[in-house]
Amino acid sequence: xxxxxxxxxxxxxxxxxxxxxxxxxxxxxxxxxxxxxxxxxxxxxxxxxxxxxxxxxxxxxxxxxxxxxxxxxxxxxxxxxxxxxxxxxxxxxxxxxxxxxxxxxxxxxxxxxxxxxxxxxxxxxxxxxxxxxxxxxxxxxxxxxxxxxxxxxxxxxxxxxxxxxxxxxxxxxxxxxxxxxxxxxxxxxxxxxxxxxxxxxxxxxxxxxxxxxxxxxxxxxxxx
Length: 224
Fold this sequence. Notes:
Blueprint: E1 4-8, E2 12-16, E3 22-23, E4 35-40, E5 47-52, E6 59-61, E7 64-65, E8 71-73, E9 79-82, E10 85-90, H1 97-108, H2 118-133, H3 136-223
Parallel strand pairs: 1-10, 2-3
Antiparallel strand pairs: 2-4, 4-5, 5-8, 6-7, 6-9, 9-10
């Protein structure tokens, strides 16, 4: 965007690229006759309006697109965007430019709001007319809906089948794991019993050896 322009409104302002009270020949986004701003001094209170003259790139008021050729009420200090230009209409030259700049910069951060163009509206109207002209269109759409429902049902069925297969595989794995754990537990207990039996046998043999040693010692003492 170019720098902001401040204009004092006294009657009417026709804005365009090459026609009007305010012209911008180098602005390629501005139409020849782009917008008209009018001041009605006879009304009470004073009425100000802005009209987009069916421009190619539209007129933006306070970040909202104006409908073409419609008179839209305009308030002082409203932000107007035409082509690459920014405008603020004031009722006096005595304004605080710094505060106004801050207000406009803040407003420019808002997203633009666009309205449907007449061509788009015509296309929508034509679609509605086509529905009435072609009664089979509803039947066609209903068939498409039914086909999509069948596809959805098939996808859900496939998903359920895969889940069932996974559940069966899970049960088989759990069953096999439990069997292996049972066998390992039996083997562990058997080994523990075997180790306990060996230890008992070792203790018995140790006791027998000690008794035999005592007998040997006694025989020596007796011979001496």
